[in-house]
Amino acid sequence: MADVISLGQRVSSVDVSPQFQPYSKVIIHINDDEAVEVGNNTGRTLEFDNPFGSREMAQNILNRLSGYQYQPYQADGALLDPAAEIGDAVGTATSYGGLFTRSRKFGRMMKADISAPHDEEINHEFKYESPQERKFTRVTGEIRASLILTNNKIEAEVVNREAQGAELSSRITLTATQLSSEIINRQNADSEMSSRITQTANSLASEITNRQNADNTLSSRITQTDTKIETEVSRATRAEGNLSSRITQTDTKIETEVSRATNAEGKLSSRITQTDSSISTEVNRATAAEGNLSTRITQNANGITAEVRRATQAEGNLQSSLSIQASEIAAKVSSSGGGSSFSWVLNSNSHTWKANNTEVMRVSASGLWLKGQIEAQSGKIGGFDIGSNALSYNGLTWGDTSKNYGAYIGQNGIQLGQNFAVDNGGNLRARNIDLYGTLNFYNYNGSYAGSMSTANFLTGASEAYNNYGSWNGATSTVSSNREHWTNGANGGINWNNTQSSSTTSRPNIFVRHCDCYSFACSDYVYAENGFRTGYFTATWRTAYVKDQNGNNITLYYLGR
To answer: So where are the chain's domains?
Structure first.
């Protein structure tokens, strides 16, 4: 024993067990097949492994152990000196033995439960050292070497333990399938550098790790097999997050990758992949705010493709791509959230645009094909100038009468040159009109003076409603049995026929609902609902009719 501590009665209880028999034999196992043995079987046997053991070593150990007996005991509530250490001798009023276990109770009296257990494994768990040995270890450190030989493994280890937790160790482990070596340089509990090499029949891996503190770890790794070589460098820091770079090489491809994961930026990575037929690059970023974003460029002998993607819960999947080949260039933007897309394709024959995979415009050598709405505020189309609210030819503007030719189509109306215009109210201004077919006048309010030379005028039922002006004119050719409708309360009608004076060839003119100031006709007239019913001869007569208000109207007519 190192020191002897006498407790006397300063214990709450003591339980003493019978002493073990003294050691009478020592056996040292050098390997699985060889061992040295000294002593006899009259007492206990000490047995252990030591590849460097010898008979002389076993005899010296037996000589040192002769006469000593192990005394198990249990003493609870002992007022133990705080300076007492494991391995010291402890004596009570009824026992004397070694201090091999201790459980302290930090109360007012600082009591402890101490014992020398029955279990012989105490020798493995608590190695006994004298005070001189412990002091030497604390001051100079410890160098320890071990070699373990089993039927399936050989392990050799050397440990150099220095002051204040520093330790340098190396280990080699050999099995039938694997050989590994490791060197560790531990400065303290938070700082450690290590290197490791692992070799099998089909792979070779080497790794170096530098753990500088709890928040900063760096490592590099090389792995080689018969089909690939992979190198990786990683760094984990609290400030920068996890960073790593990796290169993987096989007989068919080379791939490089760099990634970083941080709380603020999310996960970022970039990758380059090269094969005998293509090269592709990719950059990814995944964040809670933006979702997953990625860009990719792929190049091969046929073309180059560039692609950008973004996936979010609000927008769905958004994607744009550009493809360049020898025969065409194509671009597309699509959204799965709204189910929409727009794309175009350019080749040697045409340029085509599509919306939601439906063709909306195509340009080729034959011209432009367009489907949908067109809006333009400048430029030209077919010789017309495009303005903000009109199309113009030869610079013609609305109301301009200085140009002999030109065109205007806009919000005011349509104008051709200086002699024709129709405004957006339907008002027509024209010179020299040739009419074919039926001519109808509605809400006429104005006057006419001139000659109507159209051959088909009044060839059918020509009507004039609500005429608030006068009609003065002549026709060169009029067939028989024509109707002239009028319902003008304030206007007048003067009809002069220049046909033959023959009674049989003159037309009959029917006038219905004529409430007008005057009517004059040089031909046969039949009237109803406005005149007195009858047949009028072709002589000048005067007649009075009532208008819609009951007033007399003087009617001059040619009667028969």
So the answer is: 4-131, 141-236, 252-374, 380-413, 433-559
